[in-house]
From TrEMBL:
InterPro entries: MetI-like, MetI-like_sf. Belongs to the binding-protein-dependent transport system permease family. Keywords: Cell membrane, Membrane, Transmembrane, Transmembrane helix, Transport. Its main location: membrane. Residues 60-252 form the ABC transmembrane type-1 domain. The keyword Transmembrane helix applies. This is Sugar ABC transporter permease. The chain crosses the membrane at residues 12-34, 64-85, 97-117, 129-151, 172-197, 231-252. GO terms for cellular component: plasma membrane.
Length: 267
């Protein structure tokens, strides 16, 4: 079906309009972070000044450690759970899956206070585990739902061929199904990293006194009220905090496209 010139032009106009609508807030923050004001001289020096005043080096390191741990652990657990619920038939599978769905539907605001008292009773508050473990649980719930659908839609003929060749269950998972589900897994990694990096409530509640374990968004919140009232430095700090997420997305986007272009036999 051929597309007329007017239709193609209208498509580009709509796409450009949505692109401007989506990028304008981001670009406005970046530009504001480079402007001079009463507390900042302007230019790239604002980023260096915000980095030093806000102690973002320590906060970014904590966020990187937490995000790496949560992404790695939750992705492996989601692959295993999604494979079991998506390809195996056993008693209680549906009930277990619906239990996982509750973890998706339950907002963090509803459980963070009782969770804080539970972790405090075992001495885990103000520790790395108090930040990471709740987010692993949240990510596994969504990851299981996501990868269950991916594994259920995978080619049955390839799996049966691998079984006929004598492949074990673990080999079928890691060498057959995981490569086929690479686009879904990469998407899950990007989403999990983004959600974990941007998480504010759990670190705020779980580490009330340990400043060394503050994450980047939490540090930005304290930076805005405790260290500076200038909009330029605050925007520079927001740019610093958001930059790693943008870098990870741009890097993994190439792998996502490459994974989608990998062919496989479909039923």
């Amino acid at each position: 079906m051929r597309v007329s010139t007017s239709e193609r032009t209208m498509n580009y106009v709509i796409l450009v309009a949505f692109a401007v609508f989506a990028t304008y807030p981001v670009l406005s923050i970046v530009v504001a972070g480079l402007q001079p004001d009463a507390e900042a001289q302007g230019g790239l020096g604002n980023l260096a000044q915000a980095w030093e005043i806000g102690r973002f080096g320590s906060y970014l390191r904590t966020s990187l450690l937490v995000s790496t741990f949560v992404v790695a652990v939750s992705t492996v657990l989601s692959v295993l759970a999604g494979f079991a619920l998506g390809t195996m038939r056993f008693r209680g599978a549906d009930a277990l899956f619906y239990l996982m769905l509750i973890g998706i539907m339950m907002p963090a605001e509803a459980i963070v206070v009782p969770l804080f008292f539970d972790l405090r009773s075992v001495g885990l508050t103000d520790t790395f585990w108090a930040i990471a473990l709740p987010q692993v649980a949240q990510s596994v719930a969504f990851g299981t739902f996501w990868l269950r659908a991916a594994f259920r839609s995978s080619s049955r003929s390839i799996v049966e061929a691998a079984r006929l060749d004598g492949a074990s269950t673990s080999r079928i998972l890691w060498q057959v199904l995981v490569p086929l589900a690479r686009p879904a897994i990469v998407t899950l990694v990007v989403l999990t990293f983004m959600w974990t990096w941007n998480e504010f409530l759990i670190p705020l509640v779980m580490v009330p006194t340990n400043e060394a374990l503050r994450t980047a968004p939490l540090g930005l919140g304290f930076f805005s009220g405790q260290y500076t009232q200038g909009y330029a430095l605050l925007a520079a700090g927001a740019t610093i905090v958001a930059l790693p997420v943008v870098i990870v997305y741009l890097f993994l986007q190439r792998h996502f496209i490459a994974g989608m272009l990998e062919g496989a036999v479909k039923d």
